[in-house]
Amino acid sequence: MVSATFLQLINCVSSEHDSIFLESLHKDFSEALLIVGGPEALSLQFHRGIMEATKHQLRFLADKRKPRVVRASSDTADLDCNEMALIEDIKDITLQDIFLSFNSNHPLLVAVSSVRELGLNMYDSDEDVDNEG
């Protein structure tokens, strides 16, 4: 039963395209992992599975962010800045939760940070202007 639960969570993480649900799935996986005794209690098969599923999602999120940044930086872009900021915030929250679900020595922390850096950081420039004035 426990193995089936982890297998299903890993499959869901791998195939989910909605960032909000992805965030929930990572939280569920982390909580289930704590219940069974931590990462040491998980078989190598499941470790590999969640690693591959997370890598897949990080590639997917990066592939979505790259063109969005290019569109936002083009002069001809007809973008709704509030909508773009909302999308970026949702992705950032998801990435932050994925980041926090790993221990400090996890090999995917660099990948998560790299995908986070691809974001638009739309609020950074607004904060800088407010602080100067």
Count of DSSP E strands? Answer: 0
Percent of residues in helical segments?
Answer: over 70%
**Radius of gyration over all CA atoms, rounded:** 17 Å
First-to-last CA distance: 59 Å
Strand content: under 5%
3D architecture notes:
The chain is mainly alpha-helical. It has one domain (2-132). Helix content is 77%, strand content 0%. It is built from 6 helices and no strands. The chain has helices at residues 2-15, 19-35, 44-73, 81-101, 109-117, 122-132. The termini are far apart. Residues 123-133 have low confidence and may be disordered.
Keywords:
about 0% strand; about 130 residues; 6 helices
Protein topology:
Blueprint: H1 2-15, H2 19-35, H3 44-73, H4 81-101, H5 109-117, H6 122-132
Helix pairs in contact: 1-2, 1-3, 2-4, 3-5, 4-5
Brief summary of the model shown:
By secondary structure, the chain is mainly α. The chain has one domain (about 1-130).
